[in-house]
Amino acid sequence: MGYGAYMVVKNKSATDLTTYITHSNCVYDEGHEGSNLSIFNDASIPAGTQLPSSGSQYIEAKNSGSCFFEVSSFTIKIMTAGGTQVSIIDFTDAGSDWEYSQTPPDSNDVNVYVNNTGDQATIAITVVNAVGAAGTSSGVSQGDDAFEDPAYVAVERGDAFRKGAAGQDAQNRRNRGEDEGIDELRKKGTAGQDAQNRRNKGAEEDDELRKKGTAGQDAQNRRNKGAEEADELLAKGTAGQDAQNRRNKGAEEADELLAKGTAGQDAQNRRNKGAEEDDELRAKGTAGQDAQNRRN
């Protein structure tokens, strides 16, 4: 929500008028936030009347969302019913203060009053004399004074400041200050947005690096796990080879022992056979001796 204002256009001339909103930027409309600027667009204001017909119409600047770095502004163009331009008034809100510039700038035929001292501003436009009209505001009924801002009434009565050279100089200074303020706000806003964009980009790059880092860590973890599994398999393979080697060595030793055992058995067998032959020879010798003894 932005700064609001209660606005009225009074036609105190002898000529019927038509108002147009020729430009609007970041101003709520059509009832949003209670604001209705469109009431003044292509609106007829007969001589001696006002718009709205009683009281005033609330309008409000929009300074959020896409309008955060924007200046709220609108332009109202006042024409006679015959198509003669009476005045063009540009309004801007650059920070809870409605300011304006007027074309033509030194016209006493159109009085513009802005009061920014309240919670909501007051904007009153009074057409005293329409350029090209047959008569003036003299003798025209003013009707009920439905917009009773005291300072505004003072302006109408001529008891307060009317636009003149000094007033225009002051207005020009305000306009220049406003333009400088708007430019400064835009620069700050742009710089802030650039900084935010850089922060956003940095965050995106951090996220990307994190993703890459995570993927790289996952790959490293897989490599490490693969190395561990390879070491485990190698250890198992080494143990298996050792067991195989031990089995092979045992087989060799068994073969050697078996060979030794076979040779020993052969020798034993030979020894046993020699003993048998000895026994046989002895038996033969004993039998021969016996026979010899008998012969003897």
Descriptive report:
The structure is a single chain. The chain is α+β, with helices and mostly antiparallel strands. It contains 2 helices and 10 strands. The protein has helices spanning 150-157, 165-295, and strands at 4-11, 17-25, 43-45, 50-51, 57-60, 72-80, 85-93, 98-103, 110-115, 121-127. The strands form 2 sheets. Strands 1, 4, 5, 9 and 10 form a 5-stranded mixed sheet that branches. The radius of gyration is 59 Å and the shape is rod-shaped. It starts with a strand and ends with a helix.
Question: What is the strand and helix layout of this fold?
Answer:
Layout: E1 4-11, E2 17-25, E3 43-45, E4 50-51, E5 57-60, E6 72-80, E7 85-93, E8 98-103, E9 110-115, E10 121-127, H1 150-157, H2 165-295
Parallel strand pairs: 1-10
Antiparallel strand pairs: 1-4, 1-5, 2-3, 2-6, 6-7, 7-8, 9-10
Average pLDDT taken over every residue = 80
Number of strands: 10
Q: What assembly state would you assign to the polypeptide chains in this entry?
A: single chain
The largest β sheet comes out as: 5 strands, mixed
In the predicted model, the low-confidence regions spanning at least 5 consecutive residues are: 132-146, 157-166
